[in-house]
Specification:
The protein has 294 residues and is an alpha+beta fold. The protein has four helices and 16 strands. It has one domain: Thrombin, subunit H (Beta Barrel), CATH 2.40.10.120. Keywords: Hydrolase, Protease.
Length: 294
C-alpha cells in the first residue's frame, strides 16, 4: 500500500546518528533520531526534544572538561577522594550522567558551519537550518497536505524513521579519553516504516495539535514524517503514549513449557502521537520558510 510513498518520502528523510558516553564508563551508547527536509534551501524539521539534545552537546562536554580540570588540581591531596566527590556534586555528575554527545547528520549536506535551531513554543517541533554548506545530499522535499479536514479516524497512514542504530563507525580513543567517529565500520542505519490508522485527533484549548495512531512510533523515529499513500505529509512522529487497557491479571496460574507458573500482567496499548500538519505549516509560515502543499 505504501511502497511508492515510502520511496518518495525516503528521498528527503534523513537519520541523525548520535554516540553518547556516560560518566564512569568508557563504553559508547549509539542512538538515532529522524529529520526531514521541507525545501531545497537546507531547512528541515524534527522534534524539539531531539533538537534540544543536539543543542546541549557542547555545554555538556564543556561541563565535563571543567570537572576534569578541577579534578586534576586535587588528585595529589590527601583527601582527594572526598574532594572529587564534592566536585561531582558541584558539576552534577553521577554514574550514568551524560558527559559527551557527538552527532552526525547523515546524508543531509556535504558540510555545514552552523546549525540554527528554532523551537516551537508549545509543541514538540523544531526547525533546523543548515548554514555554510556547498552541496545538498538529500533529494526532493516534503509536500504537506493542503486540506487537513481529510485527517479522520480510520484513515491509514505511515511513518518513516530510523529506530535501529546499526552504525558502527565510532570508537573510544584512550589517548585523548574521548569518543569519536572513525572511517571504519558500518556508516548507515536502515530506515523503517510502520503504518497504522488514525484513532483520534488530540489538542488543547487552542485547537487540534496532534494525531494519534493505533500503532506506536518507535525510538529513533521521533522527527520522522507521517504520510499517506501518495507521500503527502500529514504530520511528524513525536512520542508514544501508553494507554492502560484494564485487562489486568494478578497471580494467575498458567502452564509454561509444561510447568505451572503464577504470573501477573498489566497490559497497555502503545499508540503513536504525531504533531499535526497544520501546526507544522503555521510554524513554517511564522518563520518565513518556504514549503509546499498538495
Amino acid at each position: 500500500m505504501f511502497v511508492d510513498a515510502i520511496e518518495r518520502v525516503d528521498l528527503f528523510t534523513r537519520p541523525l546518528h548520535s554516540i553518547v558516553r556516560l560518566y564512569g564508563h568508557d563504553g559508547i551508547v549509539p542512538g538515532t533520531a529522524t529529520l526531514f527536509f521541507v525545501n531545497q534551501e537546507g531547512y528541515a524539521i524534527t522534534c524539539k526534544h531531539v533538537a534540544d539534545l543536539v543543542a546541549q552537546a557542547d555545554a555538556i562536554f564543556h561541563n565535563y572538561q571543567e570537572f576534569q580540570g578541577a579534578r586534576r588540581n586535587v588528585l595529589k591531596e590527601k583527601n582527594a577522594a572526598y574532594l572529587i566527590s564534592q566536585l561531582e556534586t558541584k558539576f552534577k555528575l553521577s554514574i550514568d550522567t551524560i558527559i559527551r554527545i557527538r552527532n552526525n547528520f547523515v546524508g543531509c549536506v556535504d558540510q555545514f558551519q552552523q546549525l540554527h535551531i528554532e523551537r516551537h513554543p508549545t509543541q514538540d517541533l523544531a526547525l533546523l537550518r543548515f548554514e555554510g554548506y556547498n552541496r545538498l545530499l538529500y533529494r526532493s522535499h516534503a509536500t504537506f497536505l493542503g486540506d487537513s479536514s481529510r485527517i479522520k479516524p480510520g484513515r491509514s497512514l505511515c511513518r518513516l524513521g530510523y529506530p535501529f542504530p546499526e552504525f558502527t563507525n565510532f570508537r573510544y580513543n584512550p589517548s585523548i579519553d574521548d569518543i569519536e567517529w572513525n572511517t571504519s565500520g558500518r556508516t548507515s542505519s536502515p530506515s523503517f516504516p510502520i503504518d497504522g490508522i488514525v484513532t483520534r485527533l488530540v489538542g488543547d484549548a487552542n485547537g487540534i495539535t496532534g494525531i494519534e495512531l493505533s500503532t506506536p512510533g518507535l525510538r529513533g523515529q521521533s522527527g520522522g514524517p507521517l504520510f499517506d499513500t501518495n507521500g503527502l505529509i500529514y504530520g511528524m512522529q513525536s512520542v508514544t503514549s501508553h494507554l492502560h487497557l484494564g485487562f489486568d491479571i494478578e497471580d494467575h496460574e498458567v502452564l509454561v513449557n509444561g510447568r505451572k507458573r503464577r504470573v501477573s500482567n498489566y497490559p497497555f496499548l502503545n499508540v503513536g502521537k504525531c504533531v499535526h500538519v497544520d501546526v507544522i505549516k503555521a510554524f513554517l509560515r511564522e518563520k518565513g520558510v518556504t514549503f509546499y502543499e498538495g
